[in-house]
Design brief:
Length: about 120
Amino acid sequence: QVQLVESGGGLVQPGGSLRLSCAASGSRFRLYTMRWYRQTPGKMRELVASITSSSSTNYADSVKGRFTIFRDSAKNTVFLEMNGLKPEDTAVYYCNADIFVGLWSSYWGQGTQVTVSS
């Protein structure tokens, strides 16, 4: 079984920075596209950023120029560097990955809270 474990959330002031991490663990798996989503109460989960196995990236318009997604393939880890944080970035952030373990499946992390407030 493969697990995704996120870390790095917390409370930060507007304009501040945070780095989220998501590490995949298990055996005999292959990671492909990895993504960060976020969700606030009463709203749909929103795709924030994605990165393919060849490190091609995409971002939501709301975070372009402020957030950077990157991965360390040797450590099966994806990161989300968040700069210039705004109160509207407050959400639970979820890691998602397309993983091959005998067959393709989509895996989710447990989520990490990011709160931007003065």
